[in-house]
Amino acid sequence: MKKLGIIMIAALSFMGALVAEPAVSTLTVQAKTKVSVVSKKSMGATKYQIDQSKAKCAYAYSGSLKKKEFKLSYGQTATFYAKAQETVKVGKSTRVYYYIKSTGNSKLAGWVWHGYLMKPVMSKSALSKLVASGEDLDPSSTILKQPSAFYSTYRAYLRKEFNMTGQLTTFKKHQTRVYVSDPSLKTYASKSMSVWNEALGHSVFIKGTSKHHDLVIGTKSSKEWDGLNDGTHLYLSSSALHDKTYMDSVADTPEIRALYNQYENVSAAYKAAPSGSSEKKAYLAQGHTLYDQLIAAQKAAAPDATDYWEGVMVHELGHSLGLDHTPYLTDIMYAETSDDGFSSSVDGKYDWDSPKDPNDDRLEEPSLSNRDVNRAKLGMKLGYW
């Protein structure tokens, strides 16, 4: 049964996208700039909040844009109603403004570029109900389609509820450069990178060079783990890679787990039985039988070596995307326990020491579950990549 690790060396970070208002250098229109209202119409009362990640140093204005009514940062947590909109032409630029008014402070009212507005962030209780009603550790499409302020507001909560680690590897414009220092791993790396890139619909992992890279893939001797990611280096175990019999010991199926548990129980009973007793001899014989059955079952279910190592690398790249382990055998991010003793323990939704889907075989090939992909998409929303 394989062991896959992650060593956390980077703190959680959040990178919000900034969207500038399309206008002159300031919306307090200068005397030389011609301003005209092209059209104005009423609209059904709609609730909005100010998207503070976009509206830094911006203002609400009078209808002609000549007078500042209030700085948008003053309405950081306020809820507004928009009841009218107008199209304004400033010089050669045309844009749409909404007239908004605070529900709690009548002084906070004016015309605001619609791009600074967002639907109100859902309440914590509503989010908790949404998470509880969804699949365990699998962010729903609703969670993945929220405004940027949602992810900054509930960053810590989302990280905990979906077993995220925070930013581990450096990404620029949602891409990280990967350099494969060991030529024998290039095929594995190419496949594992493409698996994530295709699933996310974006070239997240791209080829780097020895001089220009963010993540280096290589090997390191270890009998404790098959793969390990510390943020700047991704290692496969050279000890396991060079062991031609290694695939005979990694399969993980319900039959294998049942035989293993039986063997452990008989082994404990054998140790506890009186020395020289017939009972102890019986346990010894039973133990030998179970051991032989266990070895045979593992060999029969042994995965293809290429598939296996590509799957290990897909798992480790998942850590670079901000994903921690899960207790689901059908996830590429599965781990047997939330604290394996050699890598950082999972600071997530709950602890575990057995799989949540015990009737399934372990995923031991380069593929992803929906849960893997959705968590990776959440990682992007949280600014991990």
Automatic annotation (TrEMBL):
Q: Could you name the domain of life of the organism this protein comes from?
A: Bacteria
GO CC annotations on file: extracellular matrix
Q: Which GO terms describe its molecular function?
A: metalloendopeptidase activity; zinc ion binding
Residue ranges, compositional bias (Basic and acidic residues): 348-365
Where are the residues of the annotated region Disordered? 346-370
An individual GO BP term: proteolysis
Residue span, Peptidase M10 metallopeptidase domain: 183-336
Glycoprotein keyword on record: no
What keyword terms does UniProt attach to this protein? Hydrolase, Metal-binding, Protease, Signal, Zinc
Q: What is this protein called?
A: Peptidase M10 metallopeptidase domain-containing protein
Per the UniProt entry, the signal peptide is 1-19
Annotated source species? Secundilactobacillus pentosiphilus
- What Pfam families does UniProt report for this protein, alphabetically? Peptidase_M10 (PF00413)
